[in-house]
Amino acid sequence: MQICRSVADCRAAIAALRAKGKTIGMVPTMGFLHDGHMSLVETAQTHTDAVAVSIFVNPSQFGETADLDAYPRDENRDLEMLENAGVAVVFIPEVETMYPSGDETIVETTRMANMLHGLVRPGHFRGVTTVVARLFNIVQPDVAVFGEKDYQQLQVIKRMVADLHMPLTIIGAPTVREADGLAMSSRNVRLTPEDRTAALILSQSLTAAEATATGATVADLHKVIADTVATEPRATLKGLDIVEAETLNTIDGPLHGPTAIMISVAFGDILLIDQRVVTP
Ligand SMILES: Nc1ncnc2c1ncn2[C@@H]1O[C@H](COP(=O)(O)OP(=O)(O)OP(=O)(O)O)[C@@H](O)[C@H]1O
Ligand SMILES: CC(C)(CO)[C@@H](O)C(=O)[O-]
Ligand code: BAL
C-alpha cells in the first residue's frame, strides 16, 4: 500500500497502477474508519482493479470550529485497516496541499447544496463539492463510492459530476449499521452512554415512518417522525426532509414514487444523520 501526502506522490502512485492497465476506484473519507467505510472500499474493489482511499478532515465543510476540532482521528489504526483490506493507495494531504490558495476556487451545486440538510449546515455542501472536485482531479478515478447515509451528499456529488462532465461513475452504497440499528458514524464515539442509547431514536423513527408510508402524505410522515423523536427527551430534531429520491424535489400530497426521508438529530452538540428511501 502506497501512502502519499503530496499531490505529486499520489499522481505517481496512480500512474504506476495505470501503467499496469489497472482501473482505479476511489473512496473519499475523513478518517476514523469503521465498517461503513470498509464496505465502500469493498464495493469499489468489486468495480475496479485498485482502490485509492483519501483521508482528509476538510475544514471548508465544517461550520463550527468546535465540531472540526472535536472530529476524531486515528491515522495509524486507519492505515492498518486499509492495508488489511488490500487498498492500493492512501492519500493523506495537509490542508495547505488541498487548498494552496485558500478558498479562491470553489465548486457549488447552487440549488441542491442550499436546501434541506444544507440549511442545517450552511456552506457544508459547498465545502464537500469543492474538496471532492479537487480529490477527483488529483486521483482521476474511474469509479468513486459514497455512502447512502449521507444521502444529500451522494445526490449533490452525482449532480456535480454530471454537470461538470467529470469522466467517472459515482456509486452509492447502503448504510452499514450497528447490531441495534444505529447507523455507523465516526461521530458516534463522542456520544455519552446515555446519548448512545437514545440515538436509536433515529432508526426507530424511520422504521415507524416506513411502516405508514403507503397512502401517506408528506405531512403524515412528518408527524410520525416528529412524534417518535419527541418521545426521546435527549434528542432534538434538527432537520426532517421528505423529498423525491433523486432530484430532492419537494412532494405535494401523497408519496408517488421512491421517496427519501432524511433526518438530522442533535444530542448536545453532536449532530447525527440517518435516511431511508421508501417506495409506497
Ligand atoms: N454507516 C455507514 N455506512 C455506509 N457508508 C458510510 C457510513 N458512514 C459513513 N459512510 C460513508 O463514508 C464516506 C466517508 O464518510 P465520513 O468519513 O464522513 O464518515 P462518517 O462516519 O459519516 O463520519 P461523520 O458522520 O461523523 O462525519 C461517506 O461517503 C459516507 O457516506
Ligand atoms: C466526502 C467527504 C470525504 C468530503 O470531505 C466527506 O463529506 C465525507 O466523509 O462524507
Ligand atoms: N459524512 C459527512 C461529513 C460531515 O459530516 O462533515
CATH topology of the largest domain: Rossmann fold
Shape: globular
Q: Largest beta sheet: what is the strand line-up?
A: 1-4-3-2-5-6
- Oligomer description: single chain
What ligands are attached or bound here? adenosine-5'-triphosphate, pantoate, beta-alanine
- Provide the gyration radius in Å: 19 Å
Number of domains: 2
Which range does the strand content fall in? Answer: 15-25%
Low-confidence regions: none
Structural class: alpha/beta
Helix content: 25-40%
Return the CATH class of the largest domain.
Alpha Beta
CATH architecture of the largest domain: 3-Layer(aba) Sandwich
pLDDT averaged residue by residue: 96
Number of helices: 11
Topology order in helix (H) and strand (E) letters: EHEHEHHEHHHEHEHHHEEE
The biggest beta sheet reads: 6 strands, parallel
Intertermini distance: 45 Å
The total of beta strands comes to 9
Query: What is the fourth-level CATH superfamily of the largest domain?
Result: HUPs
GO molecular function: ATP binding; pantoate-beta-alanine ligase activity
Binding site for (R)-pantoate: 61, 153
Binding site for beta-alanine: 61
Pfam family, one: Pantoate_ligase
What features would you describe in this structure?
The protein is an alpha/beta fold and 280 residues long. It has two domains: 2-173, Rossmann fold (3-Layer(aba) Sandwich), CATH 3.40.50; 186-278, Pantoate-beta-alanine ligase, C-terminal domain (Pantoate--beta-alanine Ligase, Chain: A,domain 2), CATH 3.30.1300.10. Helices cover 39% and strands 20% of the residues. It is built from eleven helices and nine strands. α7 packs across α8 and α10 (200-211) runs antiparallel to α11 (218-230). The mean pLDDT is 96. Bound molecules: adenosine-5'-triphosphate, pantoate and beta-alanine. Pantoate binds next to β2 and α7.
